[in-house]
Each structure stands twice: as C-alpha cells, then as structure tokens.
Amino acid sequence: MNTDTWLVVPLYNEGTVVGDVIRHARKTFSKIVCVDDGSADNSGEVAAQAGAVVVTHPVNLGQGAALQTGISYVLGDPEMKYVVTFDSDGQHRTEDAERMVQRLRTEDLDVVLGSRFLDAKVEAGFMKRIVLKAAVMFERITTRLKVTDTHNGLRAFSRSAAEQIQIRQNRMAHGSEILQEIARHNLRYAEEPVHIIYTDYSRAKGQSLWNSVNILNELFLDR
Prior knowledge:
By secondary structure, this protein is an alpha/beta fold. It is about 40% helix and about 20% strand. The chain has a 7-stranded mixed sheet with strand order 3-2-1-4-6-5-7. The protein starts with a strand and ends with a helix.
C-alpha cells in the first residue's frame, strides 16, 4: 500500500462509474482526493462513500482547475512524497500508476509521464491519433521536450515537482501547460508506456476526435 502517494482525481458527472474506480484504486493507493468540479449528479457522494476525500468546486471550472485544486490539497500532507493524476472514468490502470511512482522512487526523475503511444495496444482511432500526433509535434517545437503523448492524464510527480508546477489553464490545454512548466523549471522527466482503456462508457461521454481538435485550438489560442 502506497501511503506516501496521493491520487488526484478530477471528477465531473461520473457518478455511475467513479465508485468502482475509487474502490479498485484504493487496493493500491490508500490516499485519494477527488475534486468534484461542479457535478450535476451525485459523483462527489459516490466517491466519498468509496473511500476518497472529496473537495468540491461549486461550479464547473474545468479539468485543469480541478487538478490544481487537488495538487494544492495534497501538498498539505507533510507525508506526501508523490502525487499521481488519475482519471475518474476507468480509463487509467493502477498498475501503470504504481510502476510510474516506482520509477520516481528509484530513478533520478521529477516527473513520469504516461504515454499511450509507447504501448503496443493503442486503441485510439486513426484520426484521433493523427490529431494527437500533431499536438506532439507542436509541443516538441515549443518546449523542446522529447515526448510522444502530450495529453495523457496519467502523470506522476515528486513532491518537489508538484510544488513547482502551477496549472493556470483551467480546461483541456492544461496538459500542454504542464509540459511548459516541466521545461521552464528544467525538471527531470521520462515517459512510461501505459495502456488506456477505451470503454463504451468513455466513448459515449465524449472522448472523441472533437476533444482532441479542441485541445489543438486552445494551444494555438494560448500561444
């Protein structure tokens, strides 16, 4: 059981699945904070019943804002050494998160970034992969970071990295902002192959090509 590690889980209208996600994750990570980002359903109540600490935004601010709130919360725990950002809809695997934290424990790293494109079983559609690859090229040019997946929500940070990274992009462009922060602070980083689970549920709720296009749009507007 990882008692020096917190999972930070952004939460928005995932009441039908978040309970199972939290119960499964707590078999490996005992400390989980869900940031209920203005959900219209009972997501926060379900997450709390499953064993997570729940912090609530009264209105929906966006995933970036939820992550920053969660990271600020866990930095209040003096025993916290590592923090993992983890999705609430069942797409991330705890075995991948555990492996990423282990790399922080044993290697000279500040950040480990999950990459679905280093996994042999990528399930993202062809057009979505094209758009995400375009985002990768954009980030390589602007940040000079050698990454293969710029918008994978599974990330692990040391305490020092979590203290230095500040997320100001409230919505989907926060993934690019995190990379910019890694470059700006000269943080030591590596990528880890992870498998993203695309379920009928995750596809139905909007994990679509348009999300990826919107990410690119936010990137260009931000620059």
